[in-house]
Each structure stands twice: as structure tokens, then as C-alpha cells.
Design goal:
7-stranded mixed sheet, Aspartate Aminotransferase, domain 2, 3-stranded antiparallel sheet, Aspartate Aminotransferase, domain 1, 2 domains, globular, alpha/beta
């Protein structure tokens, strides 16, 4: 019998796409769905960026590029990182890939060895691919719980107890998916103090929502004294410029760049040539579209947070960044007789026509934290208001 590897059988997934398939099937059947499940801007890529790609295609820039990316883009990314993080990043430290996501795997592969018991600490709840790839590549996943009582920030005292000489990588994500929390400078400094005690501990700083901070300011841990060499800074154009399908991300680190580049060579060869020019155009062109998009997200955040908090059984902290909210629906589940957030999510989809994700789509439930859902407010104000109306009506009409 032909066998599938255990590694593949146990490989995780990104459930937003699984639920999206479910949503699209219902829509094809004629059901009205208010969709809050997919994490991508509901804006089109700005025209000037499209023109950058078209120009590149017309000029014949359609072949292979150097694995780490075209020099012009690496220079632009270095300047972008330097300006937005307050650090000095060199172009040779930069590697470009097919989105930011591949760098999760490339980094794990670069700093851990398979089956050696080396640990990777990652946020829980968190982007599900972190844990999936940690397991697939033979490291030991160690979740750090993000608790509502701490605003879904990292509990530094708890982190200190998790890290030991077997820990090779700490994954940070700020602004955070799915909670929208943002790590402040004091917390980052405390985390850095712990990390610097260990000679062989790297930090993967997932900063793809760095331009989407609504309260306070974005700070990269790479800007903390002594952290630049051991931090892999990761960002991309997907969220900031509404370019999810263009698949261009980038990472920077002075020590790992050449190794990340070899992983690119071994897997994707290089990021798509014309798309790299589109990303170059995005970074070096006018930023007005991005500013308008972020301001739109700020307004939507306020609408959805206020609306959720007005519904009986739902409590929602106001996120400081990204475009997600992570409301506590423990009481709402009790009111309608749902055993957990996943049953509540399913009933909202099929009975109320509202598509969201549940906490089990973002890792393990943290003990004592209750039930949560994730809403992406990358949706129109009309969709948000109608979704809130439907949720309120569903709870009122389904009391047990």
C-alpha cells in the first residue's frame, strides 16, 4: 500500500481558508453571509503599484532573479526597515520570498535541528502556521499563553520560566493576529533582557501588521539594545498595500540572510520577478492609499468593538493594531446553549449568516480564558453593522 508520511498526516493548516471554503459554498447556494473570517484587506491593490508590475513585464523582467531578490528591492526594504524601526539595516541583510509566511519555516530550519529536542516558544492564541511548522520541522513547540487579563500581551514572568538552554527561537507577533494586541517598549525591553541571557536564542519578529497601529506606536524588538543581530525582522507588502495575492515578503538579519537565501534557492528559487518590481513601487511610491486604508480600519475597529460590547453575553477589548477583534463569548455561548465557541461559530454561520473563526483555529484554549471568536474587520461598515445586527438577533431569539 502506498503510504503518506506521518509528518504530512499531522501537518496543520490555516483554518481561515477551510472556513472560507464553507462560506463560499453557502454563498453559491444563495445564502446571505456577512463574512469576517478572512484576514486580508478588502481593498484593491493601488493602481500605481499595478503599473509598476505592468512596466516590469513590458520591459521583459519575467525571468529568474537572484534568490535573495533584486538589488533594488533589497535596498528599498533596507531603507524601509531602517526608517520605520529606527535601526540601521544593510541591503545585504535582506532576503525576499514568496510572502512573509515562508520565513517562518526557513527560520525554524536555520536555527533548530530535527529531533534534537530544541524548543521554539510561540504565542497562543496565534497564527496557526507557527505551531504547524515547528512540529513539521522536528522542533518542540512551547506555547506561551496570551491572557485577556493582561490585554493579550506577553506575561514576561511566565516567559522567563518557559525559556531554558534548549530554547532556540522565540516567535513574537506584534501587532498580533488574532487579538490585535501590540507589545509596548517596556515589555519588549523585559523580553530582550531574558533573551540576552542565552547565547543561542534567536527571535523571529513577525511584523506584517507594523503599519496598522491605532493607539501608541509600533516598536520592533530589533531596536532594543543588543537585539539586532539575533532578531529576524519579517514584514511584507500583503497587508500594508493590499497585495496578499502578489506574494512578496521580506526578512532581514545580518547573520542569517545568506542561510535564508539558500532556503529560498532550495524551495522557490526566487520570488516572482515582476511582483518584486510591484513591491519596489509600493515601498518607494506615494503612501496616501495606505494611510487612507489604515484610517478606514481605525473607524471600523471602533464600530465593531462598540457594537460587540453592546450585545448581551459578549465582551470585547479594543485592539491597538492589525484588523482583528477577539471577543469573549463565554456568556453568549451559555445564553444560547452552545457548548463552546466552535459550536457558537457554526450556528452563527448556518443560522445567522455570519462567518467568523473560533479560538480553536488559533491554537489551544488557554485554561481559564473562556470562549473566544475572531472577527476580521477587513469588511465594509455596512457589513459590520449588519453582522452585528444578526448576532444580536440570533442571541435574543435562541435563549435556552
Amino acid at each position: 500500500m502506498l503510504e503518506i508520511s506521518e509528518r504530512t498526516k499531522n501537518l496543520g493548516t490555516e483554518n481561515a481558508f477551510v472556513v472560507l471554503k464553507e462560506v463560499n459554498e453557502l454563498i453559491r447556494k444563495g445564502k446571505s453571509i456577512m463574512n469576517f473570517c478572512i484576514g486580508q484587506p478588502d481593498f484593491d491593490t493601488p493602481d500605481y503599484i499595478k503599473e509598476g508590475a505592468i512596466k516590469a513585464i513590458r520591459e521583459g523582467k519575467t525571468g529568474y532573479t537572484p534568490s535573495p531578490g533584486i538589488p533594488e528591492l533589497r535596498e528599498a526594504v533596507a531603507e524601509y526597515f531602517s526608517e520605520t524601526r529606527g535601526i540601521d539595516v544593510k541591503p545585504e541583510w535582506v532576503v525576499v520570498a514568496c510572502g512573509a509566511k515562508p520565513f517562518i519555516g526557513y527560520t525554524i530550519l536555520s536555527v533548530t535541528d530535527y529531533g534534537m529536542g530544541q524548543k521554539v516558544v510561540y504565542p497562543n492564541p496565534g497564527f496557526p502556521i507557527y505551531e504547524s511548522l515547528i512540529r513539521a520541522y522536528g522542533a518542540v513547540p512551547v506555547p506561551i499563553p496570551l491572557r485577556e487579563s493582561k490585554g493579550f500581551s506577553i506575561d514576561v514572568d511566565y516567559l522567563e520560566k518557559l525559556i531554558d538552554n534548549k530554547t532556540r527561537l522565540l516567535i513574537l507577533n506584534s501587532p498580533h493576529n488574532p487579538t490585535g494586541s501590540v507589545l509596548d517598549k517596556e515589555t519588549l525591553e523585559q523580553i530582550a533582557d531574558i533573551v540576552k541571557r542565552y547565547d543561542n536564542l534567536w527571535v523571529f519578529s513577525d511584523e506584517v501588521y507594523s503599519r496598522m497601529v491605532y493607539d501608541g506606536e509600533f516598536i520592533s524588538i530589533a531596536s532594543i539594545d543588543g537585539m539586532l543581530e539575533r532578531t529576524i525582522i519579517v514584514d511584507g507588502v500583503s497587508k500594508t498595500y493590499a497585495m496578499t495575492g502578489w506574494r512578496i515578503g521580506f526578512a532581514a538579519n545580518p547573520l542569517l540572510a545568506e542561510h535564508l537565501s539558500r532556503w529560498v534557492t532550495n524551495t522557490e528559487s526566487c520570488a516572482p520577478h515582476p511582483n518584486q518590481y510591484a513591491a519596489l513601487t509600493a515601498l518607494t511610491g506615494p503612501q496616501d492609499d495606505t494611510r487612507r486604508m489604515v484610517e478606514t480600519f481605525r473607524r471600523r475597529r471602533d464600530i465593531i468593538v462598540d457594537g460587540l460590547n453592546s450585545i448581551e453575553g459578549i465582551k470585547c477589548l479594543k485592539p491597538r493594531g492589525a484588523f482583528y477583534v477577539w471577543p469573549n463569548v463565554t456568556e453568549a455561548c451559555r445564553i444560547v446553549g452552545a457548548k463552546d465557541s466552535e459550536e457558537f461559530r457554526t450556528r452563527l454561520l448556518y443560522d445567522a449568516g455570519v462567518a467568523v473563526l473560533s479560538d480553536i483555529h488559533f491554537g489551544h484554549k488557554n485554561v481559564g480564558e473562556g470562549e473566544h471568536l475572531r472577527f476580521s474587520y477587513a469588511a465594509s461598515e455596512e457589513t459590520i453593522r449588519e453582522g452585528l445586527r444578526r448576532i444580536k438577533a440570533f442571541i435574543e431569539e435562541n435563549r435556552v
